[in-house]
Specification:
Rossmann fold; Isoleucyl-tRNA Synthetase, Domain 1; four-stranded parallel β-sheet; four-stranded antiparallel β-sheet; 15 strands; elongated; binds zinc ion
């Protein structure tokens, strides 16, 4: 198994520090707003990483934190006349709701910054004692970047380069503009805690250093997060932990790429972001999850409504196939017709190797491609009456069905009841077109009644009326199914 390690800028064989066990820490959200698709990408990618490592037999321990004290939360709280705890709790709850819909499993630990103030203070004190930090008259504590010669190694920057890019803020009592805050003295309208340096609150970076050290032995096997966290957040986490503990911090740094909108990086600060709950008004969560995994996690992912619609078609096709795979002829009704050799060969190769791409830096895009090829083969057989009846086909289709289930459990996809999924899909597509589902269903009932009464003219005119609305009908022995064209 190989992962691209940000700190060495290359793919490396993955060797956990303790055989059979993997500890993972991923930086979670700052709870000051609803989760956008960039947050969802990170959550889904690392969810699949954890599921895949477990599938491979590793005992995985996974922590993802919540930043619940921060400038952004405080600003929002002050804007809304609330306290920052209320704001943080509101958005933490919203995050849980979004994650549940996206089928993201709960981590083993979800530490919150405000619940670990003591651990952070302890680490700040250690850094002070070792000369890696200093406190100021006003009660701030800063990390002394120049005391840590390796600073910049993770993100591939050097100190001189960084220095030319920093602005000097005369209000801050820093020795060096590169230094960053470990502890901030209390200001009006801000939450604060007592400390040896006076009332104050932690700087952002210290929480992940303190909390990862509390929950795991160091070094961590894997530390993950979005690419935008490499600098300064992860660079600073690394400096703090290594300076305080004298041990390595992380063996493998994994970072997921940006989500882009019209070729531009999507971000809250640029104002071009799309919130998950807005997307879920128009698309099923499984379609969104599939979309997030359809590009390799390190590559930029281009968000657009058109791309989601394309993804929707692919997911629909897979569920339609899944549904058909539930109704294969039983063994007594199969024939001895052999399957064509080319189908057999292609299918067997895919069945043997579909998951290999996951061991190559978690290439979910390639894996989904293999899964889709298997679905295409299944359809080729299912659409051919003669082939479908062959005993060999039945065996192959059962293998494909099993593989779909297995791939689905790693990717967190295709786990829903097919009929239910397809019905939900029709409904959300109708909603997108602003169609009223109850009136569609009423018209279908009237058409069925007309057909029973052999009033075919009326039945056809209802069909035309529905067609004009963008609804197509498919009559089957079990009734009429509608879909949005
Ligand atoms: Zn962090």
């Amino acid at each position: 198994m190989q992962f691209y390690n940000t700190s060495n800028r290359r793919k490396e064989e993955f060797i956990p520090r303790e055989p059979g066990k993997v500890n993972i820490y991923v930086c979670g959200v700052t709870a000051y707003d609803y989760c956008h698709i960039g947050h969802a990408r990170s959550a889904v990618v690392f969810d699949v990483l954890v599921r895949y490592l477990r599938f491979c037999g590793y005992q995985v321990c996974f922590a993802r934190n919540f930043t619940d004290v921060d400038d952004k939360i405080i600003n929002r709280a002050n804007e809304e006349g609330l306290d920052s705890e209320t704001v943080a709790n509101k958005f933490i709850n919203a995050f849980y709701q979004d994650m549940e819909k996206l089928n993201v499993l709960e981590p083993d630990f979800e530490p919150k910054a405000t619940e670990h103030i003591e651990h952070m203070q302890e680490m700040v004190q250690t850094l002070l004692d070792k000369g890696h930090a200093y406190s100021t008259e006003s009660g701030d504590v800063y990390f002394r970047v120049r005391s840590f010669p390796d600073y910049g190694a993770l993100s591939g920057r050097n100190i001189e380069e960084l220095k030319s890019g920093t602005r000097v803020n005369p209000e801050e009592e820093k020795e060096d503009p590169l230094d960053f805050a470990l502890w901030k003295s209390a200001k009006e309208n801000e939450p604060s805690w007592p400390s040896p340096w006076g009332f104050g609150r932690p700087g952002w970076h210290i929480e992940c250093s303190a909390m990862s050290k509390k929950y795991f032995p160091l070094p961590l096997d894997i530390h993950g997060g979005g690419q935008d966290l490499v600098f300064p957040h992860h660079e600073n986490e690394r400096a703090q932990t290594v300076a305080a503990t004298g041990t390595d911090f992380v063996n493998y740094w994994l970072h997921n790429g940006f989500v882009r909108i019209q070729q531009e990086k999507m971000s809250k600060s640029l104002g071009n972001f799309v919130v998950i709950r807005d997307i879920l008004n128009y698309f099923l969560p499984e379609v969104v999850r599939f979309f997030l995994l359809s590009t390799h996690y390190r590559s930029p992912l281009d968000f657009s409504w058109e791309n989601l619609q394309e993804t929707e078609k692919a997911v629909k096709r897979i569920y339609q196939t899944k549904q058909q795979l539930l109704h294969l002829p039983d063994t007594a009704n199969t024939t001895a017709n052999p399957l064509p050799e080319d189908i057999k060969q292609e299918a067997n190769a895919l069945l043997d190797t579909w998951d290999e791409s996951l061991s190559d830096d978690l290439n979910t895009a390639a894996t989904l491609g293999h899964v889709f090829s298997l679905v295409r083969i299944a359809n080729r057989i299912l659409e051919d009456k003669k082939l479908k009846k062959s005993g060999e086909s039945r065996e192959l289709l059962l293998n494909i069905s099993q593989t779909l289930d297995q791939a689905g459990s790693i990717l967190g996809l295709f786990e829903l009841d097919s009929a239910q999924f397809l019905e939900d899909l029709r409904k959300i597509k109708a909603k997108r077109l602003d169609l009223d589902i109850s009136s569609i269903e009423e018209l279908i009932k009237q058409r069925e009644q007309a057909r029973k009464e052999k009033d075919f003219q009326r039945a056809d005119s209802i069909r035309d009326e529905l067609s004009e609305m963008g609804i197509k009908l498919q009559d089957s022995p079990s009734g009429t199914i509608w879909d949005v064209e």
